Amino acid sequence: MSENHELPAGKRKLIDAALRLTAGGRSFASLGLRELAREAGLNPNTFYRHFDTLDELAREAVESVSRRLRPMLRRERWLAAHDDAHSVPRRACAAFFAFALENREAFVSALAEYHGTSPVLREAVRANLHDVSAEMADDVVQLEWMPTLARETVDEVCTQIVLQLFHLSAEYLDANAARQQALIAYAERFIVRLFAGSVLLAQQEPGRAAAPMRG
Predict the structure, then answer these.
(1) Is 215 inside any structural domain?
(2) Beta bridge partners of 149
(3) If you average pLDDT over every residue of the chain, what do you get?
(4) Which residues, as ranges, make up the DNA-binding region of this protein (predicted)?
(5) Which pTM value belongs to this model?
(6) Which residue range(s) make up the domain with 101?
(7) The CATH number of the domain where 68 resides is what?
């Protein structure tokens, strides 16, 4: 994934229009070019100045959200780690769900495409979730949260965490305030238990533990 950047106005309008049209559960593949241009307030020919296909637009829509989500999560993890390491899981979960709420249309579309009919879009969503989990794993290692775990295990745990948060966001988006807080608490417990269980398994399987550091 590339770093965050401003999209050209026409491209942004087309992406926003596509997200509005798919927020009700429609797939990107079902969108018509004229329908999309009309929703964006643009001439249909404008589409081809920015995209070659609807799949390309959908990929850019997913990536544009990821470019904003990832640095926000990383910043929240590091700030929480310096304030109180025990607060990291809860603050990271709260930040993830708050971002989902602020970007409801994008998350609804991504949730639909995750199991959608387009292989290109399924892979785009999965690839961006992988980027989120890879950066989370980097932070776990750099901040030395789980020094006894092998990097392979950290990667696996972070992948499971990100997928769980992603799927929980579907319920979070339509939940009332009390249920939203309950989901944040549940996600926090999920993370803590997953890492705690991984540490216990690593102790029982020495070959899976991180190699000791040499002085």
Answers:
(1) no
(2) 209
(3) 90
(4) 32-51
(5) 0.85
(6) 61-206
(7) 1.10.357.10
Q: How far apart are CA 215 and CA 212, in angstroms?
A: 10
pLDDT band at 214 (very low <50, low <70, confident <90, very high): very low
**Residue 161 is which amino acid?**
I
Assigned domain for 45 exists: no
Give the mean model confidence (pLDDT) for residues 24-32: 84
73: in domain: yes
Q: What is the C-alpha to C-alpha distance for residues 166 and 179, in angstroms, rounded to an integer?
A: 16
Alpha-carbon distance 113 to 157, whole Å? 23
Residue position matching structure tokens 């399987």: 205
Q: Total structural domains in the chain?
A: 1
